[in-house]
Input
Amino acid sequence: MKNLLMVVGAAATFGAVSIITTQVHADTSVPVYRLYNKNTGEHFYTKNSAERANLNRVGWRDEGLGWNSATSGKAVYRVYNPNARGGDHYYTLSKYEAQSLVSKGWRWDNGGKAAFYSGGSTNLYVAYNPNAQSGSHNYTTNTYEQNSLLNVGWKYGAVAWKTMGTPAATVAPKKVDVNVTGVGGSEQSVPGSYRLLYSNKAFDNRNLSTPAAIEFSADVSLSGGSSDYENQFVIAGNSGSTSGQIGVELHYQAGNDSNFAQGRINVTTINFPAGAGTSGQQFYSVKTNAPRIANSQSVRLQVKYFTSGYMQTFVNGTLVGQYKSKLVPGGNAYILHDYTNAKSTIKNIQVKKNGKIVNPVTQGSSPLTSQTFTNKTLVAAY
Output
């Protein structure tokens, strides 16, 4: 992990990492885990750690902690439809609604007792997919996720119940790139400087429904055989070395630290806001529950920056980062950096400005469409 404007040989040391979110009291709340079945499209929610482990063991993807549930309040019931293709679960505050579904062939989960409780000040939203049998309802505290589903045809958009907020911090973040981090995205020798490395740093909630001011995307593959190799796909401002950088990284490092997803290629959001200083405002956030990426597998990377001061990163269409940031374009222009210390191939590069395609991307005076490169930084501008 290193800045792309000036590539230096300072390798980050990875260690304990953190989820930084709303603090809650352990005696009034319990964590609710979220899992995903890729074969049916259903998300499942449980506070039972054994149930979570069993589902993960039989192929459900563990998506981590969804929210904190109150330990008392109004009951939330869970029922199961065995007749839907792949099965389906439904959650409701209404015991009458749950009983009505049971009378039509659904089954009580948890013996008809409360699965969760509604309590707290954080909204949990429900969306409904009328075209699905399994996974027809989605529950989330993330307003961006909710609005994204509604924008592609899901229905309702209502508040389902209240929660106690998002999971509290469990591990301290790690200082990385020590003594090399410059202000707002430039690397130089700055004693005492550092960046922070997080695991699943909570997204900054904001409804980003308008087109991004700038969006870079491409099909990128990463091939390596060492114990530490990476590809960083980054948008930089175009107003000097401190104009900010945002991006998404594919990174392999040997090890078994599950907080950091060592031992496999992981997905990391890069956020170095312009003028951020040298005291940790610049950070990386590993998405440990992102879909697995194999060595040499080509994935679609997207990085977006909005004039409202937010950034987003995507891998194969899945949102992996959304944070406040700042880029200084300079002449309304931005720079694409694609750095690797291994072998990477980049294809189908596309740039959108305010939602409209503005290709070609140029490298010098020539259009850039695809390239395979090793141990270098590919730089292009629009």
In short: The radius of gyration is 22 Å. The longest strand covers residues 334-353. The chain has three helices and 25 strands.
